[in-house]
Records
---
Amino acid sequence: MLQSLHFKAPKRPRAKPRSAQQFLDYRKSACEGLPDYAEELLTWCLASAPMKQAPQLLWRKLPRSAGYANHRDWRIVLSCLVLLEKSQVYETLIHEYAHLLAIDRFGVAGAGHGEHWKACMRELGQNPKRTHNYETVTVNRQVVVYQCKTCGKFIERKRRLPRGKTWLHKACNGRLIHVETRRPSEERK
Ligand SMILES: [Zn+2]
Ligand SMILES: [Zn+2]
């Protein structure tokens, strides 16, 4: 056991500029174990607040969002670039599960961060925060987030769409609702 106290520190790799691939590999290793943890958490959610059908859980290289729920495909997508710790997976997965739960119970009326979603968050033992900073990585510019009321897809824009008109999601003709405007100063917790 003592030996482990006197281990030789591995030589630091020469300070080379990291390539994008090296950076992605580093992120990948930091995420090890998180997919298993996410599956466990999903099982817990399904047992605590059941829904008609278990959602599919997918990991994608989402550059800016920690994750999102798509109620048309009934899936939760998590970002392997943004989520690097269990606590972040915990916060994100339950937030997204609550979106699907609200839609499972109330249909499209459950979309967004309204009362139905908040009630589902509370049922899962969470404080339904209006701002969900975890969905924000360091943002150097304003990001305006809309959600399609029909398919649930999140759409990010640089500017707010002019008010007084109904804006539709090209892919499905669903109505776009304003979710939030992230100011440049907002950073993830
Ligand atoms: Zn949300
Ligand atoms: Zn849509």
---
Amino acid sequence: MAAAQTLMADRLGQALELPRGALVLDAGCGQGAVALRLAETLGLHVEGVDLQPDNIRSATRKAARRQALDRTRFQVMDYARLRFPDERFDGVYTLESLVHAPDSQAALRQFRGRRGLAASRRAWLRASAGLWLPAVRRRRPWPVVAPPPAAG
Ligand SMILES: C[S@@+](CC[C@H](N)C(=O)[O-])C[C@H]1O[C@@H](n2cnc3c(N)ncnc32)[C@H](O)[C@@H]1O
């Protein structure tokens, strides 16, 4: 994992503020690099979903190689149509993926309520590319969606 991506994953992990063993959804997990990092460094349990079967195969292979199949699980799924029971997760994050959603607000609503989380906090991280990366955590009020003011 490249240093910049590791840093981003670590910042995301801090923003989630979840205890070891908490169950987190990685929406648009790609090849699982971030999910594996969070599982290995923070002891989180991460379920990753991605539209692309190749990504899921690759993520699952990596998890097997790194003996992390007890803490990570990857499956093909559209994060705008989650097929998980309500309130399954303690948190959800999506990194550099929401930008692909035709209706990002609808996807966020999934994470927040109907099929994802009950009430959530969103911590905004800013990627070097200027994308806003929402991380969502349970049991805090849902804030107004607004990026922080520009630095400087
Ligand atoms: C730029 S990659 C980011 C991967 C990973 N989150 C990371 O940070 O390394 C975007 C990923 O989002 C996935 N994706 C896009 N729309 C999606 C959707 N509606 N449901 C699930 N995955 C989606 C793509 O297949 C792709 O793997």
